[in-house]
Specification:
- The structure is a single chain.
- With 137 residues, this protein is of the alpha+beta class.
- The protein is built from 6 helices and 6 strands, in the order αβαβαβααβαββ.
- It has a 6-stranded mixed beta sheet with strand order 3-2-1-4-6-5.
- The protein starts with a helix and ends in an 11-residue tail after the last strand.
Length: 137
C-alpha cells in the first residue's frame, strides 16, 4: 500500500470511527471488507459490522433506523446473532478475525468472542496470522 492509499485508509477509518461514536447506545463495531484488508479501490464501499441492541427485529428496518452515511454498507446484528454466526463459523466472523479493525467495543466482544484485539496507537486492530498494518490518527 503506497502513502496515498494508506492516508485514504486512515481517513476512512477515522470517519467510520467518528460515525460509530455518534450512534446513541451501546455497540461494538468492526470495519471489515476491502478497507480493513487494504485492497480497496475508488468504487469500494465502507463495510461496518455493528453489533448491539436494536428496537427493530428486521435487519432492513435496523438499517433505516441507524441512518448510515452514503457509501457505507452496514451489517446490523444483535449480540445473539453475532454469537450464533460465530458458532457457525460464518465468513463475516473470519473477516473480523483475519483483518478487522475495531471501531468501538462497548460490548467487550474482543474478549468475550476471543477476537485477539490489541490496541495499536489510537485504533484497535485484530491480530491474526496475516500481516496487519498499523493505522494511526
Amino acid at each position: 500500500m503506497d502513502v496515498i492509499e494508506r492516508r485514504e485508509r486512515e481517513r476512512v477509518i477515522k470517519e467510520a470511527k467518528d460515525w460509530v461514536a455518534s450512534i446513541k447506545g451501546v455497540y461494538s463495531a468492526f470495519l471489515i471488507g476491502s478497507y480493513s484488508r487494504g485492497d480497496f479501490n475508488e468504487g469500494s464501499d465502507v463495510d461496518v459490522l455493528l453489533i448491539g441492541e436494536f428496537n427493530e427485529e428486521n435487519p432492513v428496518k435496523r438499517l433505516f433506523a441507524i441512518g448510515s452515511p452514503p457509501g457505507y454498507e452496514v451489517i446490523p446484528l444483535t449480540e445473539r446473532e453475532f454469537f450464533e454466526k460465530s458458532r457457525k463459523n460464518n465468513p463475516i466472523i473470519w473477516d473480523i478475525k483475519e483483518r478487522g479493525v475495531v471501531l468501538k467495543d462497548d460490548l467487550n466482544l474482543c474478549k468475550r468472542a476471543q477476537l485477539n484485539c490489541v490496541e495499536l496507537r489510537s485504533y484497535l486492530v485484530i491480530y491474526s496470522h496475516y500481516p496487519i498494518s498499523v493505522v494511526s490518527e
